Amino acid sequence: MIRVGVFGASGRVGKLLLEDLKETKDMSVSSVYVRNSLDFSIDPSILVSSDMKSFLNACDIVIDFSLPEACETLLEVAMKTPKPLVIGTTGLNTHQLNLLKQASEIMPVLYATNMSLGVALLNKLVYQASAALEGFDIEIVEMHHRHKKDAPSGTALTLSESAAAGRGLNLDKVRISGRDGNIGERTKDEIAVMALRGGDIVGRHTVGFYNDGEFIELNHTATSRNTFSKGAIRAGSWLADKEAGLYTISDCLEL
Ligand code: NAD
Q1: Taking a C-beta distance cutoff of 8 angstroms, is the pair 142, 192 a contact?
Q2: What is the 87 CA–ligand 1 centroid distance (Å)?
Q3: The domain that contains 198 carries what CATH number?
Q4: Which of 176, 179, 247, 253 has the most beta carbons within 10 angstroms of its beta carbon?
Q5: Catalytic residue among 15, 83, 144, 220
Q6: How confident is the model at residue 83 (pLDDT cuts 50, 70, 90)?
Q7: Domain of 241?
């Protein structure tokens, strides 16, 4: 039985994680980290703690869907109490990403801005399309619910990395995230990543390849957040016995 520590348990994805783990063979929740207290009841055998060390000591692996600052603290403490970490939090800054890399030198860390099988495949398709459709303009649009804090989404950024890699481009040099005013014509290599926010949209990503006379749009729509919680559980089960290292969802899915 793999004992899972849930970090971000009171969040939209975290709550589903707790529910989905109840239905999962060979895995169960053993600890939950809270800042204050939980506003819902939970099996009394589960450790509910605001002490990060106790939280980590009580589990075999951690699944995290929180916020960047919280994830940063988790990574810092986990370096002293190593555990396999499944990190789903998005919007990590350069410092936090470096911390994640450092942590992966002493424990297995799977970092995925999107835990779904569909988006893992979409990244592969985008890489291929970007390489094959030379001269097509690439534009990415993402849509999420009104509560999402980071923009553009981690998934959209990962898709833009796949698109840039397919063309051998340096994403930092070609990515733009808005157009406004008399900015002139589109430049050849730019890749726009645009974010729309509204309602309860779970997550929709479109990567378009546009040319004179034709265009292709690759689209993924998540209709349920269980796609992410179930994907993270699958990732945790896979990661539990791995060596230290930084893994992606594609490693886990063998894509
Ligand atoms: P949410 O705002 O509903 O939940 C955030 C959780 O983090 C809450 O439980 C909150 O209590 C906790 N938290 C916030 N600050 C904290 C702190 N300082 N210390 C400890 N805990 C803290 O968010 P959500 O919609 O559940 O999403 C969580 C994260 O997961 C976001 O970054 C989101 O973009 C990302 N996400 C990733 C995927 C994926 O597949 N990788 C899918 C959906 C969402």
Answers
A1: no
A2: 10
A3: 3.30.360.10
A4: 247
A5: 144
A6: very high
A7: 2-111+225-253
